[in-house]
Every structure is written in C-alpha cells, then in structure tokens.
Amino acid sequence: MKFENSLPKINLSDLEAFEKTIKSLVPQSYREFLLEVNGGFGQYSKFNDFKGEDISSIDYFFGLQREGEPLVNESGSLSMNVQWSWPQSIYSLPESTLFIGRSPIASTFLSVGKKDYGYIYNGNIEDGDFYEYSEKRAKKASCEQEMANLGFPLIARSFEELLLNVIEENDEDEDD
C-alpha cells in the first residue's frame, strides 16, 4: 500500500529512543513500517478485520516525529505523531496502548502489552459499554474483550495482518 504526506524518515536510533520512552519494544511489522514509511495517508482506508467480518476505517497512520521538529511536513500539511500518553488520559486505556491511526469516526490502537502484544484495535469509545479500562475485568475475560467493551474491537493480530486485510477500492466502488 502506498502512503502520502508521511513524516520525515527516521533512523533506528530514533525508534530505539521512542521504545526507551515507552519502556517497550515495538512489534517488528510496525517497526518496519515506521522505518520505511513513517506514517501518512494510506492509498486505501478500509480494512477487513482478521475474521473477514467487519470493516474498519483508518484514514491516517501516525509516524514518529523527531523532538523539536514542527508538526508540518514537506507539503505544508499538518502531521501527527504516534501518541502514547494521550490514550491513557482520554480513554483510560492501559499504558501499553499506542495511538497509531485515526479516521473521522474511529481511533486505532496498537498494544505493546504482554497479553496482547502487537494486536490492533479500532473503534470509538461511544460504541462501548464502559469508559475506563479495567485490569480486573481484563484478567477475568481478556485484554481483547476489555478493549471491545470500551468500543475498540480487535481488527488484527499484527500490523502486517492489518495491511494484508486492506480493501483495495477503485473509482467504480466509490460511485456506488
């Protein structure tokens, strides 16, 4: 899949500094994406979930931004960076959750937690039954179930799986 309006390229030391900040390693497929693409608007924005049942929308994937760089990319448009503290403050999600993408109706998160490492969740808090992540509920059921309770169902078990499940739209599809 092609991406437009990506942030400037990063190097391995930039990524390692980010991992040190979040106190976790980023899954390999997402690591490769950040090093090769570093975010941007995807050629396509619709994805099947890993079961092939539901469609999720992700318009923009966040990249890593070097400290001190403006939030404007080469084309002059506003760019965003991977957020790792924002989900916890707004959605009361675990610290092991990275905010990696968005659309007008949904937010996309990547887990770097031990139990659901690499899992991708997408949805909207308004669709959930609860508004705060509960470790107690997650231990009784699963992290996956708890995220779904918050309105963020699992859509892929890895970033690579997410990109493999892209729905390739063409101009004819958009006219329907």
The count of helical stretches stands at: 7
Distance separating the two termini: 23 Å
Uncertain segments are 75-80, 171-176
Instruction: Give me the Rg, rounded.
Output: 16 Å
Structure write-up:
This protein is 28% helix and 18% strand. It has helices at residues 12-22, 28-36, 86-91, 135-140, 143-149, 159-164, 171-175; strands at 3-4, 40-42, 46-48, 55-57, 60-61, 97-102, 107-111, 120-123, 154-156. The strands form 2 sheets. The protein has a 7-stranded antiparallel sheet. Strands 3-4 form a two-stranded antiparallel sheet. A hairpin with an 8-residue loop joins strand 7 and strand 8. It is globular, with a radius of gyration of 16 Å. Mean pLDDT is 81; it is low at 75-80 and 171-176.
Strand-helix topology:
Elements: E1 3-4, H1 12-22, H2 28-36, E2 40-42, E3 46-48, E4 55-57, E5 60-61, H3 86-91, E6 97-102, E7 107-111, E8 120-123, H4 135-140, H5 143-149, E9 154-156, H6 159-164, H7 171-175
Antiparallel strand pairs: 1-2, 2-5, 3-4, 5-6, 6-7, 7-8, 8-9
Features:
7-stranded antiparallel sheet, 7 helices, disordered C terminus, alpha+beta, 176 residues, globular
